[in-house]
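One-letter codes give the sequence; each number marks local geometry. A record appears below:


***
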Amino acid sequence: AAASRGLRLQDVGPDGDCFFHTLALVTRSDASVDRMRGEFADHLARQWELERGNPGSTLWSDLAVQVLYTSAEEAVRGVPEGRAREEAFDDFFSRGLTGELVDSIVATVRTSGRYNTAAGDIFPAVAAHLYGVDIRSMVYAEGGISWWDGLAPGGKKIVYMVRDDTKAHWM
């Protein structure tokens, strides 16, 4: 499917840093994973400070629903299906973004080799905001392949990445 768009697939190791390895490849950056993770974490922390002073005006405003939904899903993972799970999910979601949740995501982003879905799902938007890239993605999932044009719109440089959702892996 990638070849039909004139793209060549290059896999990177599944080491918890695959998004950053892939981003460096497609942007032809020589930045290390540690440097990029540090830049992402610092940017998210700065955006959180701005959000606290002027709610609804920062990157966190755009990410809030996605982060809350994914974090709530992770928080109720061990709760059996049914009413108790729904209530636990609703309770977590209704608290909104908190400093504790943001700090946890920033810590995950800062740590090489560390990955979780709440942090990983926002990487394309953070890259667009921080580096000015527009990430177009081919996403492989159990139901097939879909294209996300402008997954992180607003960038001046268009780059292509592939996401294998069955393995939570970027390439």
Observations:
- The mean pLDDT is 86.
- The chain has seven helices and four strands.
- The first strand starts at residue 133 and ends at 141.
